Task: inverse folding
């Protein structure tokens, strides 16, 4: 249970809540393994690859945490928690193909171990099983997960295409990460509240909190990729620079007329040489872009706290607030 306390900064003082969440996650883990198992060895090996690799399991954890604001429905909540994690894992398989990644969660990525076709089909396999699980939860749940699929894909397509002419790059970026990351965590919160029979206004609040926290996670990772000298985000600092990905601190820096012209030049495309990555990191750390991104993160965290204040005071609400605090603290 100590690992659960450390998960994504979740601070849980209440032993009863801690035991309940740990038991729920154990049930989710068992259901995940049961769901992805296949009698076809090639399918089984690829589908279990990321499940066995582990991860923080934040999405199912947030589903379980959101269910604390209702009463009952434990079996349905566990099913929903497993489904949202399957959707998340499916997107990781597809992301690795698009990013040409070779590692994922400390293990060789599926596209590298097998090939892109296997990775894409495995992602589709997990999407299918997530849909099957949610189908047992009723038509409302099935509609919600379908809408979430649409948000995830739309966000990925918009990121690939980039901002349209005349569209503000920062607003485009924030809306894209809300779709790509926020939408699924929002659905996790919504499912947890809805399936535990929480009041409708609490369900809507949990949806909004999930959306804000999901977006905040990405901004937090953006900041860490530049500001940290360690590997807090699970990847070497400057990874986004090497991939030519313009994250929020970079976009803010590019929008500032006072930004060093050398940094503008470096951010014109992917940076492949180590010494140029270090130069760009040094310039970004001294730019206004990094501070503005931290300010935006702090604003999102405050928005989450305001939303949470409308929920009943409880250990579960305190735990949710600790996530908002952690997202800011981890970038310090």
Result:
């Amino acid at each position: 249970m100590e690992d659960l306390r450390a998960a994504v900064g979740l601070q849980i003082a209440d032993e009863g809540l801690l035991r309940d969440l740990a038991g729920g996650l154990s049930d989710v883990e068992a259901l995940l393994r049961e769901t992805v198992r296949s009698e076809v060895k090639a399918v089984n090996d690829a589908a279990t690859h990321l499940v066995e690799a582990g991860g923080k399991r934040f999405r199912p954890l947030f589903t379980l945490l959101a269910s604390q604001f209702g009463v009952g429905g434990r079996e349905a909540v566990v099913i929903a928690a497993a489904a949202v994690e399957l959707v998340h894992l499916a997107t990781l398989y597809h992301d690795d193909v698009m990013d040409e990644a070779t590692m994922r969660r400390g293990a060789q990525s599926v596209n590298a171990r097998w090939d892109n076709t296997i990775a894409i089909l495995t992602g589709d396999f997990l999407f299918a099983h997530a849909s099957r699980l949610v189908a047992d939860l009723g038509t409302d749940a099935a509609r919600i997960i379908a809408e979430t699929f649409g948000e995830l894909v739309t966000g990925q397509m918009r990121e690939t295409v980039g901002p349209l002419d005349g569209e503000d790059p920062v607003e485009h970026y924030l809306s894209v990460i809300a779709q790509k990351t926020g939408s699924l965590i929002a659905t996790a919160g919504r499912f947890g509240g809805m399936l535990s029979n929480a009041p409708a206004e609490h369900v809507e609040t949990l949806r909004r909190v999930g959306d804000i926290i999901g977006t905040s996670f990405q901004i937090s990772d953006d900041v860490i990729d530049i500001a940290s000298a360690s590997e807090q985000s699970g990847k070497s600092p400057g990874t986004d620079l090497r991939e030519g990905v313009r994250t929020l601190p970079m976009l803010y820096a590019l929008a500032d007329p006072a930004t060093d012209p050398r940094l503008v030049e470096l951010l014109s495309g992917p940076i492949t040489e180590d010494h140029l990555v270090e130069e760009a990191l040094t310039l970004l750390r001294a730019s206004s872009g990094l501070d503005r991104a931290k300010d935006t993160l702090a604003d999102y965290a405050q928005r989450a706290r305001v939303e949470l204040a409308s929920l009943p005071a409880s250990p579960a609400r305190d735990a949710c607030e600790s996530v908002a605090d952690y997202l800011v603290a981890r970038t310090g």
